[in-house]
Write a structure and sequence with these properties.
CATH architecture of the largest domain: 3-Layer(aba) Sandwich
Largest sheet: 7 strands, mixed
Bound molecules: FE2/S2 (inorganic) cluster
Number of domains: 2
Strand content: 35-45%
Number of strands: 15
Structural class: alpha/beta
Radius of gyration: 18 Å
Number of helices: 6
Helix content: 10-25%
Distance between the termini: 31 Å
CATH class of the largest domain: Alpha Beta
Strand order of the largest sheet: 10-9-8-7-11-12-15
Order of helices and strands: EEEEEHEEHEHEEHEHEEEHE
Shape: globular
Length: 257
Amino acid sequence: KKMKKEAKVLSQKLLADGIYDMWLETPFAGDVRPGQFVGVYPANKSTLLPRPISICEVDTDRSAIRLVYRVVGSGTAEFALCKEGDQINILGPLGNGFPIDVAKGKKVVVMGGGIGVPPLLETAKRLSGEDVSAVMGYRNSETFLSDEFAKYAKMYIATEDGSVGTKGNVIDAMKAEKIECDVIFACGPMPMLRAIKAYASEVGAKAYLSLEERMACGVGACLGCITKTKEIDDHSRVHNARICTDGPVFDADDLEM
Ligand code: FES
């Protein structure tokens, strides 16, 4: 069983409107797989459950992980106030992460939407050397992290307002830029993931989707993250999976969505 651990805040800054960028020193940095997340505990003791936050990047030299997160409530608002040198309690690494090895020698596309963008950065980094494209979707010209993806991947941007890149969503950018893919790793809101599942089956690609946006506690306690999957055993019954403990990454073919 994972234990709560102390982590030291190395730095924190505002990255975009309501989105923060925090580096934490933690002993488990070297064990992290891309697509995994941590549970961050608010200091307020009346709040017992941690907040799940995906891991954006790892720096093993500093034994550090980077969290890029949106402030959505009192817990995340509290994290945003943390400063260099502060200690916070975290649990992790949690979840399964993306199966990077399936992309060896293939054309791979990492796709992120909104606050689903961050976990794809470490994913792109671990894939560098492969034929990797990054297609990231944003609301507007606040295309946070996009310059960092360009270090590891051919970078494409879609924006809802058309201010940068293709006007529309990540699928519109795939089509407009004629990006080929054998394997997709994606994270973002459910409508985007549904569209990616449909697109992957249309073009004959494999897709692995992180459903982390649907998590609440991240540790199996709230049951707010139940999702339907196709039965993996022989009984072909609908199987209820918990995103936080069985995922957050699923093979799109296994999901009913
Ligand atoms: Fe709470 Fe999965 S997020 S049980």
